[in-house]
Amino acid sequence: MKQILFILFVMNIVAAKTVQVVDQQTGNGLPGVNITIVGTSDGLNTDLDGYFLLDDSYVGQSLKFSYIGYIDTTLNYSDISNVRKIQLSPDVLNLSSVEVISSKLEWEQADLPSLVTTVRTRDLVNQGSIELKEALQRDPSVVVEQGYSGTHEISIRGSNADEVLIIYDGIPLNSSYLGGFDLSWLNLNDIESLSIIKGAGTLKYGSGAFGGVVVLDPIRKGGTGFNMNYQTTDQNLKSYSLSDITQIGPLHARLTYSSKETLPFGFFNSDITAKRDFLNFYSTYALMDTANYFSFNYMDIREDVDPFPQLESNYADRYAQVKYHGKIGLLNNMIVQLMQRNNTSEEQNITDPAFEFSNETEEETQLASLENKLVLKNLVNLFKVELKQDIYTGKSNTRNVFWERDDNHHITLSQDWYALTDVFKYRSEIEVPFVDYIELNTSFRYDNIKLNKIHKAYWDGDIYIDSDSTDIFDQISRRSGFTLQKNRKNFRYQMFYTSGTNLRYPSMYDIYLRDHTTIYRYADSPLKPELIFSTELGLQASIQPSNPNSIFGTIDIQASVYKNKYNDKIYHTSIPRALPTPLNMISTELSGKELSVMASLFQDRMRVFIGTHRLDISSYTIFPNKPKFRDVAEIEFHNPRGNLRVQYFHEGKQYFGGTQDNINWVVQNLRGRENVNLYGSMNLKVAQKEYIIGVSLLNQLSDEDELNYFNQRKWLFNLGLSF
């Protein structure tokens, strides 16, 4: 009997074939890959070296392999049994809003042709980076402007901060009140990768996204484990982050908590620090397989500045999101999203009763969106038709209270927003050299925005301002163009041309300021939405050597030439002791060119990146403080024990539209800058634990007496632990 049992045991081991899942580019095993049996609730995971047992009970079934940062791959049993090694291709970003595959962009699935730059942040964190701006500015078309209060505002292709939309796992972070978002609030430790979208693809995101979109993908899944990071700087600013990932069958959950010390007024050295806490909980539950899932995301950001010689302040921003992705009835690709946001901030001066004041701001946002994509292809084997609908509704409420002694203001603004996006694409094969097929695309977006404002002000108990107004805007924006594509094993490219219009509405803050301007000469001029006309010619290509022994790996190329014309562009001016007043400029233009090349060498142990962006702006009153050009060059060295990266960037002259008398605008010439950053990390494995030590040396070309904290020479140290 024992012999029979032993034989059956051996037969079972033989029947369960050992298969390894590896990275297609490096050949390294991938631990914790999620493997689901299609059509069932069964699943398994790879071990620390990427291996799993392929049991014969799976004969005739298909297995789906899912792993963060890689393309979901589905194979049947016989294919897996024959190869014994599954290669997963790196996926730039696995998001429904930006369906990206390959090293840059999945052209077949993208809603509209766009240039997409992607950056993985894990290496940056290991090397000691703390700020998100360090990851974003690797793109030469991106400039992160740093204000005197330490704020980080992003500019893409010369745009202003309120024209760039920041999305965190499908959650729009921009304030409905001000239009922009301070990037310094985000936690780099919580982000797996980011994607910067430029050009035509931004139309689907709305009027506040014309300058570009930054999609942030949090670390949502992977092998079960615990991670810790601790950072410190030469300014004795400390940060730490703790995260834990748990997987129980189809349920994934991740909890992250981090605390960061910052300088509330970042341009000056000071003993005054602010403490920011970041809490994020994310969970997802797969239904049948990972293509159908529910997810819940909760994020809480808080800051306290205490004690402070002149001001006490606190800030809180909370987001809750529920999302379903999958099949509903006959619709196979549905995305349903519900989101609630609450933002509060308080400031209070308690040092001198003569100047005592307090300011409280509350903002509440509800969002509901419904997205569906319908694809009809392989009709007559000649063409593909793709139709996408995106329905969005949102509501925002903002209340601001300000009092100085007996002067009391209550301001309430509410915004109702309905949007509908349709994308139609037609693809056909054509008999042209170096072209596989042409794709025509047309897209329309309808926006309807209703702004309500109530303002009441009291002086010694008497009302002296009592107003109630409503503004309604609606507009249809459009884009159209064509794309030429060719896909081969060692070469693929996409060249696209697009043109169209987009509309950007005044923010709630613009509406408030315009209705209560103290500049009487503009009082009778209504504030108009700005209309943007844009054209772009873009190219992206990926080349792989045919010789497997070549020192070169994949070479990625991106290039673009674009021109934007703005009618009724909104900008602000002011007079002494007055709030800035938003105005319309009849016409202004912005055009630019960008080029970037990234190449991997020596089996991806070395990477080289070179990028440049040239900008021509007709009015620096409208687009202030934007460099004429920006060049970035990087070289990275990788090996299993660590990596080293050297970054050089050079920014040209900047022109700031300022005022010396607070009435007349003049253009001030600001010198350009160049600098070098060094990043390095080392990995140590001890007793199934991985220790990561990283050091960053920033701004090595800066003068020793540099006063701007962000441009000063400094170092950052990181200690990471995972098990």
List the helices and strands and how they pair.
Blueprint: H1 2-15, E1 17-23, E2 34-37, E3 43-45, E4 51-54, E5 62-66, E6 73-76, H2 77-83, E7 85-88, E8 93-94, E9 99-100, E10 115-120, H3 122-126, H4 133-136, E11 142-146, E12 152-156, E13 164-168, E14 171-172, E15 191-198, E16 212-218, E17 225-233, E18 238-248, E19 251-262, E20 274-287, E21 289-305, E22 312-328, E23 331-349, E24 357-379, E25 383-404, E26 407-432, E27 435-459, E28 462-487, E29 491-504, H5 508-515, E30 530-543, E31 552-573, E32 581-601, E33 606-617, E34 626-627, E35 629-639, E36 642-651, E37 654-659, E38 665-670, E39 673-686, E40 689-698, E41 714-722
Parallel strand pairs: 1-7, 13-16
Antiparallel strand pairs: 1-4, 2-3, 2-5, 5-6, 8-9, 10-15, 11-12, 13-14, 15-16, 17-18, 17-41, 18-19, 19-20, 20-21, 21-22, 22-23, 23-24, 24-25, 25-26, 26-27, 27-28, 28-29, 29-30, 30-31, 31-32, 32-33, 33-35, 34-37, 35-36, 36-39, 37-38, 39-40, 40-41
